[in-house]
Amino acid sequence: MIALTGATLVVDDALVDDQALIIREGRIEAVVAANDVPATADVHDLSGCTIIPGLIDLHVHGGGGHSFDDPDPAAHQQVLDFHARHGVTTMQASLVSAHPADLARQLDALAETTTTNSMLYGVHLEGPYLATSQCGAHDPTALRPPTADEADRLLARYGLITMVTVAPELPGVPEFIRRLTAAGVVVAAGHSEARAPGLAAAVDNGLTHLTHLWSCQSTLIRQGPWRLPGLLEESLASNHLIGEIIADGHHLPPTLIEIARRCLSDRLIAVSDATAGAGMPEGYRYRLGIIDCEVASGVGMVVGADAFGGSTTPLDGMLAHLHRTLGWPLPEAVAATSTRPARVLDLAHRKGRLTPSYDADLAVLAPDLTVGATMRAGAWTHRG
After folding, report:
1. Do 253 and 162 have their domain in common?
2. pLDDT, tens digit, for every residue of 285-325?
3. Rounded to an integer, what distance in angstroms lies between the CA atom of residue 115 and that of residue 118?
4. For residue 356, cis peptide bond before it (omega within 30 degrees of 0)
């Protein structure tokens, strides 16, 4: 039995002091008054710190100089270790668009990684079923509409692929979405020129998620005197879709984050979109698929283009930006980086909260919100 004492706890919408977390066999057994800690407990005094549920990153390509699109499980482990040091306890490995043979090799390697490290919950395919005109840092030659055969191949990897981003306007997408969502895969709209009819058809077939708002999304246009909302406006006006923001202080200015917050409320999630450049020095070169990128002014940039090449900030940096820079209450920032992502992955019954019977997945924050320690399933995966 472990007792974590002395820290402020973020319990749902509240900051709780003078309470201790009791952990047994990988789960939170109880939250008790500090003077009620069992005498037999292994006590860890974390005075001056704050304990939050472990961070859950739905959209991450790499970190610490390594990438998930490297078909080498050893590289994947380096990525997982890097993000564990930043408070992440569950994540999806995001893959940029790739040609079929390359994608198959990447998925084979990630299937091996998921058997050896349960921190990796599954794989998010950010493409290749995207609009060429909104490709961003994706290889445009790899983009293609989905086919029935590709749906068969993806569904044959049951349990590995947990999320797929698609452009709703591509031919074959509605049936593709229907088949994937019937198998429990979350389907998101992104990298798209979709207008209202395309998004509506996608939603009717099971689409529930929006990939990084404002990044590679169609926006308002005029046809004569008529104004036609794009995917962005339709997303913000939706009453049930869940939207991502990259809250690194570079991708989106505070005004846009506040618009998303007001529109989506508790359906807004922060993701890192971290790349191999996360944690690396200025000028470090890395690749997203075949696209050359570099760390420049604290963000990823496509070499030779005025375009972002993913983020170089892990999810704890997003949490700090939301709370310290933008003034969100800490419980709200934690909800956006842990509690709400758990719902997307259908894990809300056991992850994303500090409450009895939940997995003992947590991060210990210093006063400056840097991560001093990370625990997963009751075991320390990182201690500073």
Report:
1. yes
2. 999 999 999 999 999 999 999 999 999 999 999 999 999 99
3. 7
4. no
Domain extent, residue 42, equals: 2-51+358-383
Q: How many domains does the chain have?
A: 2
Contact 81, 75 (CB under 8 A): no
242 and 336 fall within a common domain: yes
CA distances to 115, 125, 157 from 160, in Å: 10, 11, 6
Note whether 308 and 363 are same-domain residues.
Answer: no
| 176-219: pLDDT as tens digits | 999 999 999 999 999 999 999 999 999 999 999 999 999 999 99
Cis geometry, peptide bond prior to residue 128 (ω within 30 degrees of 0)? yes
How do 242-245 and 268-270 pair as beta strands?
parallel
38 and 64 in a common domain: no
What does pLDDT average to over the chain? 97
Q: What is the pLDDT of residues 268-277, one digit of tens each?
A: 999 999 999 9
**Is 349 a domain residue?**
no
The C-alpha angle 195, 199, 204, rounded to 5 degrees, equals 150
Looking at the structure, do residues 9 and 91 belong to the same domain, yes or no? no
Cβ atoms of 51 and 354 closer than 8 Å: yes
Q: Tell me how far apart the alpha carbons of residues 342 and 335 are, in angstroms, rounded to a whole number.
A: 9
As given in the structure block, the two tokens for residue 301 are 């940039």
Give the CATH number of the domain where residue 25 resides. 2.30.40.10
Q: Which letter does DSSP use for residue 280 in this model?
A: P
Are 86 and 118 found together in one domain? yes
